[in-house]
Amino acid sequence: MEAVSIVIPAFNEEGAIQTVIGEVREILHRHGTVPEIIIVDDGSTDGTAKMAAAAGARVLRHRSNRGYGAALKTGIAAASHECVLITDADGTYPAEYIPQLLDKLERADMVVGARTGANVKIPLVRRPAKMVLNALANYMTAAKIPDLNSGLRAFRRDLVMQYFPILPDQFSFTTTITLAMHCDKYAVSYMAIDYRQRKGKSKIVPWDAASFFVLILRTVMLFRPLRVFSPVVLLALVVGFAKMGIDLSHQPNISASAQLALMSGLIILLIGMLGDAIATRLGHLNPNAVVGVKPDFLLPAEHEEEVKHATGRRD
User: Fold this and answer.
1) Rg of the chain's alpha carbons, rounded to an integer?
2) Helix 127-141 vs helix 226-250: angle between axes, to the nearest 10 degrees?
3) Which of 36, 65, 160, 201 has the fewest Cβ atoms nearer than 10 Å?
């Protein structure tokens, strides 16, 4: 297993931080890896930083509370290793899955711990909104995303840092990076994990669902604007043609409302196509967009033999 930096953002988590650090270190030591554990204290008012330092972690501190995403950016930028794994400081993500995530990263650009295991303790009040947001994200990215905003994931440092300008400073960091990587056709793998009951009070409130909804639309607009514009265009055209049919069945003229609906559909379609052309052009300028990843079933040795056979090369 290669060297890894574990980045853990923390805000007022003095009650759980030492347990989380100890659990992560123990499980990776058991697999022969000495991890770099980075705790980013995001302006805590309790003893989070002191507890983390006492547990032997590398502690970075924000002078004020800047947000979950800002803490992750700080930790990722400061990481010493190319392989980075993020997790939460509240003890909800079991560290036992970390070695498997890191192993899967050899054949993916990002591996996400999807909270779909047998023992998942997500509050019932948050589940309906989560299902709706997941369904929207699946449509917008044309991908199957079992867990949109899981806080346990492993990835390559330079790959995620290219998205720093568009990644928000709040809880929507994980949602945005998931959408962005799917839209850019990176290899994102998911692994079912359990999710424990949270220690302490959650920082997420129910009305954050509306913010996540807007975020999904904004992010997809940057990468695949036609996925947003197409339903609007279709609706406008259906209304326009339906009204035109009604008009022509009663009189030889087409009403202004039908013309307005049809023209609106055409204008929105042209705007969407322009946005899609710009997004495609910018994607082609991204040097990382052409990186290929071996599928899970193709081992390096087998891949080498296939290349030799295809090219007729012999050692």
Assistant:
1) 24
2) 80
3) 201
